[in-house]
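lol so apparently i was supposed to do this last week
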Amino acid sequence: MENTFGMDQGKIASEIAKISWFHTFNFGNGIVTSGYDDSHKRIRTLHMPDDLSGMTVLDIGSWDGFFAFEAERRGASRVLATDSFCWSGNGWGTKDGFNLARKVLNSKVEDLEIDVLDLSPEKVGAFDLVLCLGVLYHMRDPLLALERIFSVTKGRLILDTHVEHLMTNRPMIAFYPGKELNNDPTNWCGPNRAAVEAMLKAAGFRRAEMVYQKFGFNPGYRAARAIKRKLINHESLRIAFAQDRMVFHAWR
Ligand SMILES: C[S@@+](CC[C@H](N)C(=O)[O-])C[C@H]1O[C@@H](n2cnc3c(N)ncnc32)[C@H](O)[C@@H]1O
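anyway here it is w/ S-adenosylmethionine bound
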C-alpha cells in the first residue's frame, strides 16, 4: 500500500525500524516512531506561533527534525535545519531519521551540517524565527553560542533549555566538567533562570521572557524526581532536586 506521497508503507515501516529515533513522529496509518522524546507533548510547551505563514525559520540542533517539519507544517516559507554532533555521526544518533522523515513528509526543509559556534549571517542568513531547543546546556561557552544565535535571528528566538534553581536570583551557571548531568559528558552547563535572561540580553536581545517551566517549585514532585535520578543515574540528590526545564522567548 502506498501513502499520499507514493511511498510504500511496508518499506517505510521497515526503514523506520532500522533507526534509533529521538523524536516521536506520527506519520499516519499507525506508523509512529519510537522516539525517546515526547515531541507532540513538547511542542505545546514551546508556545510557537500557530501561523508561521511567510516566515523563515532556523532550527538549530535539529536532530530528527520534528520541530523544523512542524514549522513547515505551520506555513513557514523557508525552514533550515542545522546540526553537527549527531548528524556527523559522532553523537548519540545519526541523520537517518531526518532524511527519512523529510522523504515521508515530502518536505522541502533544507539542511546544513554546521556547529552552533560557526553560525553567522554570511554562512546561513538571518531568520524571522530561530529555534534552539535542547542545545544550550551542551555548550561549553553558552554566552558565545547565544551571541552566534543572536547574529542569525531577525525576529524571535525560542530557547528550550535545562536550568538549575541555584537558590539565588543572581545570574549563575552550574558547570558540569564530568557526567554530573544525566550521566552524559556532553552536558556542560546549567544556568539558572536569571543567568539565561541575562545572557540573552548580553548577547543582544532586547527582551526575554520565560514562557514555560516544567517542574516549578512543587517540593514533593521535585523530591520524587530527584530520588529517581539518584537511583537511575547515581546523580547527586541535591543537584537533581535543583534541576528544571524552561522555555524562553527572546526578541531582537
Ligand atoms: C538534546 S538534542 C535536541 C534535539 C532537538 N533540538 C530537540 O529539542 O528535540 C541536542 C542536539 O544538539 C546537537 N548539538 C550538540 N552540540 C552541537 C553543536 N556544537 N553544534 C550543533 N549542534 C549541536 C546534537 O547533535 C543534537 O541533535
